Amino acid sequence: MAELNTQKPPIERTSVRLDEVDRKILSLLQEDATLSLDQIAEQVGASKTPVWNRIRKLREAGVIRKQVTLLDPEALGLEACFFVLIRTSEHDKDWAARFLRALRERPEVIEAHRLAGDIDYILKVQVKNARAYDRFYQSLINEVKIHNVTALLSMEEIKATTALPISDSAR
């Protein structure tokens, strides 16, 4: 989740078959990736070596992409979260490459999605305040031609999770 992965071609993956133990392991790791193998094994009712083998296979299959530490933005003074809706009249490869490069070079862009519908892209931008957002905005539009930008300030984060609903979708 730390970096936009759009430069790589989409990976053709067949759906990985997960049994109940795999789902339990993944649920535990999504909640706390610092759990030891012993702790995971105890909670799933298996021994350490089979649990390690399952985790290794889940990594190799691409189910587990990476392990990260989640930081509190407010504790770091990044109190303003903006959702930025972008419409562009440009859709050629050169423009897209410049736009993606511009996003990758800006650490304040913590998520970026290309959309279907009236809006072309949505960005999640975490900054110190509105003035910092304006500096980000000015820098972006000076680098890449954008038809229309709408910024929405999040007043309150109601729910945020990185945990995927694997118990239902992985069956």
From TrEMBL:
Residue ranges annotated for the HTH asnC-type domain, each copy included: 18-79
In terms of InterPro entries, this protein maps to: ArsR-like_HTH, AsnC-type_HTH_dom, Dimeric_a/b-barrel, Tscrpt_reg_AsnC-like, Tscrpt_reg_AsnC/Lrp_C, WH-like_DNA-bd_sf, WH_DNA-bd_sf
Query: Which keywords describe this protein according to UniProt?
Result: DNA-binding, Transcription, Transcription regulation
Which SUPFAM superfamilies has this protein been placed in? Dimeric alpha+beta barrel, Winged helix' DNA-binding domain
- Give GO terms for biological process: regulation of DNA-templated transcription; response to amino acid
Instruction: Give Gene Ontology CC terms.
Output: cytosol
Carries keyword Transcription regulation? yes
Q: Name one GO molecular function term.
A: sequence-specific DNA binding
Q: Which Gene3D superfamilies match?
A: 3.30.70.920, Winged helix-like DNA-binding domain superfamily/Winged helix DNA-binding domain
Q: What name is this protein filed under?
A: Lrp/AsnC family transcriptional regulator
